[in-house]
């Protein structure tokens, strides 16, 4: 089910923040060894997503408490590089909440909307 959510959000980001999305990914590709060089681009992308991407806005309004809990976990575990050990459960909870919101709305990724019948 998380592929559903990932695809849906990526489609929305690509549709509503294409420039920021491309600039960030170009920067990460060029700075693969030190992605911290791309903080400015990541912040631009985040601002655009928060302001313009409907799926993210729905998730943020309905799953805000879990989102805050996950962000805090990342901040607390970044330096020790223990995010995977300590935050994956919260991420699973966040994904579950987000997927529930998308299902309530009946939102589906674009590739699931086109079903071709065999003749």
Automatic annotation (TrEMBL):
Coiled coil: none
Name by which UniProt lists this protein: IMS import disulfide relay-system CHCH-CHCH-like Cx9C domain-containing protein
InterPro entries for this protein: CHCH_domain-containing_protein, CX9C
PANTHER family reported in the protein's UniProt record: COILED-COIL-HELIX-COILED-COIL-HELIX DOMAIN-CONTAINING PROTEIN 5 (PTHR47106:SF1)
Domain IMS import disulfide relay-system CHCH-CHCH-like Cx9C: residue ranges: 10-53
Lineage: Eukaryota, Fungi, Dikarya, Ascomycota, Saccharomycotina
Pfam families reported for this sequence: CX9C
An example Gene Ontology biological process: aerobic respiration
């Amino acid at each position: 089910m998380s592929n559903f959510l990932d695809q849906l959000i990526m489609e929305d980001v690509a549709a509503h923040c294409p420039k920021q999305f491309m600039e960030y990914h170009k920067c990460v590709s060029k700075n693969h060894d030190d992605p911290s060089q791309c903080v400015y681009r990541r912040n631009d992308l985040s601002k655009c997503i928060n302001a313009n991407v409907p799926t993210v806005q729905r998730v943020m309004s309905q799953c805000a408490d879990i989102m805050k809990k996950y962000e805090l976990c990342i901040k607390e575990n970044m330096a020790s590089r223990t995010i995977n050990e300590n935050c994956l459960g919260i991420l699973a909870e966040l994904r579950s909440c987000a997927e529930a919101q998308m299902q309530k709305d009946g939102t589906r990724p674009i590739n699931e909307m086109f079903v071709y019948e065999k003749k």
